[in-house]
Design brief:
The protein is α/β, with parallel strands linked by helices. It has a single domain, classed as Peroxisomal Thiolase, Chain A, domain 1. 29% of the residues lie in helices and 21% in strands. It contains eleven helices and 18 strands. Strands 3, 4, 7, 8, 9, 11, 12, 13, 14, 17 and 18 form an eleven-stranded mixed beta sheet that branches. Strands 5-6-10 form a three-stranded mixed beta sheet. The protein starts with 5 loop residues before the first strand and ends in a 5-residue tail after the last strand. The N terminus is likely disordered.
Length: 414
């Protein structure tokens, strides 16, 4: 799409800086674990029934009045013995996700086809296993050392997640862990596409995991971004975010039955550490590049999974962007009222939700929201809608202006 083209009558197409379309990649397996349950079926059923996974905070020892999206059972399910050195809440959540929907078996098939050194791993997280570091500091010895059980350096690094996933899947190729706040696990798709297109890998495991920890909950609270009630994205009376934890993965290959990663767009506007650009500059650039790489126009998109955190400024900027660039027939929503904001895992969770929407013929609405902000156009919906979908976007906009938009579909674009 050329810069200056018109995507919707009377509205400018979002700007694009990319050189053209990319070959799509088949998503041959995908899975997710969130506060809605383990696996695709549990998550889709909760979306369909409009059952939220949020509950009053029961995670922090010190009281904090908020609602969270918590995955049950992680405290009682240590990693299998071969992976004991990586044992912590974040990697337990990763392991749980890897066991769902036949995902590990699908990766084993790719490993056999291409070789373990030709299947890359790209994962995103914002805090990785920092919860284990918090626990270690709470249990310092009289000499000021970590307790012996927690003197495992690999769980106190950002790359803990990537290294664990690679070893758990028996892979030996390129492996990278990305930490770009809320866009982390969306950017994993972009990294994988480039590495496969350049011939560095033949397939890639992408995804992300972020688990609950005190640093995040009290950190967001110090920024006055935490809601004392379940989050209400795009509501005129929204009060802030609900933090959740989640993990999910996808397997990307050059060929397969689909669905497809059709395109992506990335940007870094660096406007402010925790606030979006007032005109949504970075979001516009990422959106334009995603459409250009996929060969789609705004009018082609049936559903948009919005970043929609329920923070005041973020929702306002994103709502105006969607109202300006997309036709009224496009369905858009935030699903964070179901899962909470999974931070570094938000990108993969919402990419999977977008794929579930396409596969299940259901455009999710916006849970907990009752009256939309006047900045919202007709695209943003409150209610679920049964709808045949071909193409969807998943938007992830992180702190510091680190943005990523994924274009997904049931078919290759002609």
């Amino acid at each position: 799409m050329a810069v200056g083209a018109r995507s919707v009558a009377g509205s400018p197409a979002p700007p694009s800086r990319c050189l053209g379309r990319i070959p799509p990649l088949a998503i041959t397996a995908y899975t997710v674990c969130s506060a809605l349950g383990a696996g695709r079926a549990a998550n889709f059923q909760a979306l369909r029934m409009r059952r939220s996974g949020l509950r009053p905070n029961d995670f922090t020892g010190v009281p904090l009045a908020t609602w969270i999206g918590r995955v049950d059972g992680l405290e009682t399910k240590p990693l299998p013995e071969p992976f004991a050195a990586w044992d912590c809440r974040n990697n337990r959540l990763a392991w749980l996700a890897l066991q769902q929907d036949g995902f590990s078996d699908a990766v084993a098939g790719a490993r056999a086809r291409y070789g373990p050194d030709r299947v890359a791993v790209f994962v995103g997280t914002s805090t990785s296993s920092i919860g284990a570091s918090e626990e270690a500091y709470r249990q310092l010895t009289p000499e000021g050392l970590y307790p012996e059980a927690l003197r495992r350096p690999i769980i106190h690094t950002v790359h803990s997640l990537g290294e664990f996933v690679q070893h758990a899947l028996g892979l030996t190729g390129v492996c990278a862990t990305t930490a770009t706040a809320c866009s982390s696990s969306a950017k994993a798709f972009a990294q994988a596409e480039r590495m496969i297109r350049c011939g560095v890998a033949d397939a890639a495991v992408v995804g992300g995991v972020d688990s609950l920890c005190a640093s995040v909950l009290f950190g967001f609270n110090s920024l006055e971004l935490i809601s004392a009630e379940p989050c209400r994205p795009f509501d005129i009376a929204r009060h802030g975010i609900s933090v959740g934890e989640a993990g999910g993965f996808a397997l990307l290959e050059r060929d397969g039955p689909g669905p497809w990663l059709l395109g992506y767009g990335e940007s870094s506007d660096a406007h402010h550490m925790s606030s979006p650009h007032p005109e949504g500059l970075g979001a516009r650039l990422a959106l334009g590049d995603a459409l250009a790489r996929s060969g789609l126009t705004a009018a082609d998109i049936g559903y948009i999974n919005l970043h929609g955190t329920a923070s005041a400024r973020n929702d306002e900027v994103e709502a105006r962007l969607i109202a300006e660039l997309f036709p009224a027939t496009t369905r858009a929503s935030s699903t964070k009222g179901w899962t909470g904001h999974a931070l570094g895992a938000a990108g993969i969770v919402e990419a999977v939700i977008s794929l579930l929407a396409i596969d299940g013929g259901l455009a999710p609405g916006t849970l907990n929201t009752t009256e939309l902000d006047p900045a919202c156009g007709p695209q943003i919906r409150i209610d679920n809608e049964a709808l045949s979908l071909r193409f969807a976007l998943s938007q992830s906009f992180g702190f510091g202006g680190s943005n990523c938009v994924l274009a997904l579909g049931t078919e290759r674009v002609a």
